[in-house]
Design brief:
Low-confidence stretches of chain B: none
Helix content of chain A: under 10%
Largest sheet of chain A: 6 strands, mixed
Helix content of chain B: under 10%
Distance between the termini of chain B: 35 Å
Oligomer: heterodimer
Strand content of chain A: over 45%
Structural class of chain B: mainly beta
Order of helices and strands of chain A: EEEEEEEEEEEE
Distance between the termini of chain A: 41 Å
Radius of gyration of chain B: 13 Å
Mean pLDDT of chain B: 92
Structural class of chain A: mainly beta
Largest sheet of chain B: 7 strands, mixed
Number of helices of chain B: 0
Number of strands of chain B: 11
Order of helices and strands of chain B: EEEEEEEEEEE
Largest interface: A-B, 23 and 28 residues
């Protein structure tokens, strides 16, 4: 079955430090990968995506993600965290057997401390 | 810029009651979908639609009905609510479907439903 795993329920980081939120995937064929962010009491917002090409993709709010095919990973990164980055982050992959569907991970809560 | 609008934002039901969660988008999106969000479960797809008059089941469709009579609207109906349907529901839409769907979903603000 196709799936996405986010192994950390929560990531804590001090403001100004680099952050990484991990995601691994399992799909057949070429993956389309995504990151979304959810602020408290809000809907999800698209951050970035990998379709093809450069393994390092840049997105909104200074976030970037690195696609690693051999490790089947798509980790979200930011060089310098802000307190305002504190939110719930979801990794997602397009279902290759039904391209109308996105499969979401369980989410990782990022807490950035002043 | 209304985007995706969901109503109501909060609702409390008793077991066995019925209700409809409304979703409307003003972006002329072909694709619309409903997800539920539960702690530790992430988002799970309930139903989706690739255009007016077309609907299909997602991962957790039981207990829910949908229809798509217009491009703009995609209501989600609970015919006989159960406590297991207590959740936060999100409607989402996107420009394209199928192989053209690059996954950039636009989400509503969510509807928090409690079934007693």
């Amino acid at each position: 079955a196709q799936s996405v795993a986010q192994p950390e329920d929560q990531v804590n980081v001090a403001e100004g430090n680099p952050l990484t939120v991990k995601c691994t995937y399992s799909v057949s064929g070429n993956p389309y990968l995504f990151w979304y962010v959810q602020y408290p009491n809000r809907g999800l917002q698209f951050l970035l995506k990998y379709i093809t090409g450069d393994n390092l993709v840049k997105g909104s709010y200074g976030f970037e993600a690195e696609f690693n095919k051999s490790q089947t990973s798509f980790h979200l990164k930011k060089p310098s965290a802000l307190v305002s980055d504190s939110a719930l982050y979801f990794c997602a992959v397009r279902d290759t057997s039904n391209t109308d569907k996105l499969i979401f991970g369980t989410g990782t809560r990022l807490q950035v401390f002043p | 810029n209304a985007g995706v609008t969901q109503t109501p934002k909060f609702q409390v039901l008793k077991t066995g009651q019925s209700m409809t969660l409304q979703c409307a988008q003003d972006m002329n999106h072909e694709y619309m979908s409903w997800y539920r969000q539960d702690p530790g479960m992430g988002l799970r797809l309930i139903h989706y639609s690739v255009g007016a008059g077309i609907t299909d089941q997602g991962e957790v469709p039981n207990g829910y009905n949908v229809s798509r009579s217009t491009t703009e609207d995609f209501p989600l109906r609970l015919l006989s609510a159960a406590p297991s349907q207590t959740s936060v529901y999100f409607c989402a839409s996107s420009y394209t479907r199928g192989t053209g769907n690059t996954g950039e979903l636009f989400f509503g603000e969510g509807s928090r439903l409690t079934v007693l």
